[in-house]
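FW: tagging you since you asked about this chain on Friday. Here's the raw sequence from the shared folder, copied in full. Didn't touch anything.
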Amino acid sequence: MNEIEKRVQQIGVVPVIKLTHPERDAAPLAKALTEGGVPVAEVTFRAAGAAIAIKAMCETCPDMLVGAGTVLTTAQVDEAISAGSQFIVTPGMDADLVRYCQQKQIAIFPGCTTPTDYHTAYKLGLEVLKFFPAEQSGGLAKIKAMSAPFPMFKVMPTGGISLKNLGEYAKNSVIAACGGSYMVTAELIEGQQWDEITALCRQSVAIVKEARNG
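HL: got it, structure written out here
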């Protein structure tokens, strides 16, 4: 694993964030996540202004690991890197996009759920994959099954992860970290409930720690 991948695994939880008002919310959200022991964020390009949010979060919390999610094009990769992004996440396996990120020397976690996806990732020399959408694609049972022919990978399941099943995922050695939006829902962000976000992050960190040490 590279240093970015190691840091993601150490934290264990990756908030997946969609910001409607990045100028207003990015900075306080970065502080809330960091105070909750989760100094990492995947800011999705599903919302306009993702690059603005990434830049603001990086400037507010310089030690925070900020990446771009739902990246579909090389132009978005360039935009994310210019904003300070330290990693790229794609919803699917796009070999050309992976190679582009490798040329740019930025970590990339492509969405993979099939043997073909995994085999492509293997040929591209990847080590950590996003398993998306996790619950809808078979969840932990499928992740375990996939790790039999592909034991070289760690995965980041995203999609359907919550406080209720976080521990079950986190205790499996194949899991690098779990992505989720339950601690950064639109309601919490729009309501500027930063203390609640911090509390949910602390709960998540405690669950992951207990699961890994159990």
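FW: Strands lie at 13-17, 40-44, 65-69, 87-90, 107-110, 128-131, 154-157, 178-180.
HL: agreed, and The radius of gyration is 16 Å.
FW: great, closing this out.
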